[in-house]
Amino acid sequence: MDLAGKIIRGTLKATLKIDINSDGKDDASTNISIPDINLPEYLKNTSDLVLIFDDIERCSIATSDLLGYINHFVEHQNYKVILVANEAELEKNEKYRIIKEKLIGKTFEITPELDLVLDKFTSDTRTEKFYNPHLDLIKQTYSQSKYGNLRHLRQALLDFTRLEQKLPHEVTDSQELVAHLLQLLLIFTFEIRHGEISAKDISSFKFGWLSQISSSVTEEKTAIAKLTEKYPRIKNQELLLDADLWIEILDKGIINDTLITKQLKNTKYLISKKTPNWIKLWNFRTHTNETFKELTNEVWTHFRELKFLDPQEIKHISGMMMFFFFKKNLRKKHSRNINRNKNMYR
């Protein structure tokens, strides 16, 4: 009866002070009485009940104080108590480890059946058939995140469904393109919602990949370098969409389907003979060395002759040429260092 007694014991009273003429002084006051709470009988008799405390790690009360309070029910009231929490977060507090030995008898880890959960999540989107070819990719990416947060997975699938439904069949019929786009959205959602990156960080990923190439020169790992290690299948330098579009999707929930469709049509998955050469060059990893040289010379010539007028095109081409220049000089620098080292030991 101790728990129920604490809830219903006595009448709660408070005094409300009123400033009538706004002079900063209290001119009147009134007492407010809150009547006893009429609890149902099953809450008044708690002797056979189990107390469940959920989301312990999110409680604003200090962990030691909270567990001390709960311990009162266990030791003095002989209640059975279940704590539901992310223990990895609790273990960051050294006091928790000490209190755990005294308070907590058994610890169980709940591991969801991902296949069953994924079936439920995809059915919630009402597009199960669309996701069927990509279930292995979804499970693999979810596992690689190592967060085990099903809420984030569900939100990512709902967001991707909104995006996919606004795209034309010409885009969604490409299974490779859809898989690539889905993988990126999953990764960004997991990392952003877990607080590892922000949506705005995506703007720096191009530069991150650039510095990743020079990892032997700079020891500090960039955010994208860490993501590449964590998700080996992530496509280097292929965000598919401009960073601004990703930020709108992930941070603001805005889907500019016209611009998104235009950019997806310019990816290597939907490239055609009508595709401008600078876009073909953008997907340089798909070309032979000979084709790459031809495209580079042609695009660079047109660039110097000021034939590109669209600001977005100029921005992309400038960045691409800087990337090629940097990579070429980096190889030369490594070659000079190797030759210098050889001469030292002759």
Structure report:
This is KAP NTPase domain-containing protein. With 346 residues, the chain is mainly alpha-helical. Among the domains are: 102 residues, no CATH class; 126 residues, no CATH class. It is 56% helix and 7% strand. It has a two-stranded antiparallel sheet. A two-stranded parallel ribbon has the order 3-4. The C terminus is likely disordered.
Identify the quaternary structure here.
single chain
Global Rg: 30 Å
Number of strands: 4
Bulk shape: elongated
How are helices and strands ordered from N to C? Answer: HEEHEHEHHHHHHHHHHHHHHH
How far apart are the termini? Answer: 89 Å
> Helicity level, as a percent range?
55-70%
Given helix and strand content, the structural type is: mainly alpha
Low-confidence stretches: 7-21, 27-35, 207-218, 333-346
Count of helical stretches: 18
Strand content: 5-15%
> If strands are numbered along the chain, what order do they take across the biggest sheet?
1-2
Q: How many strands, which pairing sense, and closed or not: the largest β-sheet?
A: 2 strands, antiparallel
Nearest-integer average pLDDT: 77
Topology:
Blueprint: H1 2-8, E1 12-18, E2 28-34, H2 41-44, E3 50-54, H3 63-75, E4 80-84, H4 87-90, H5 94-103, H6 114-124, H7 128-131, H8 135-145, H9 150-164, H10 169-172, H11 175-193, H12 205-213, H13 223-230, H14 243-252, H15 257-265, H16 277-282, H17 289-304, H18 311-344
Parallel strand pairs: 3-4
Antiparallel strand pairs: 1-2
Helix pairs in contact: 3-5, 6-9, 8-11, 9-11
Organism: Pseudomonas chlororaphis O6
Protein name: KAP NTPase domain-containing protein
InterPro entries: KAP_P-loop
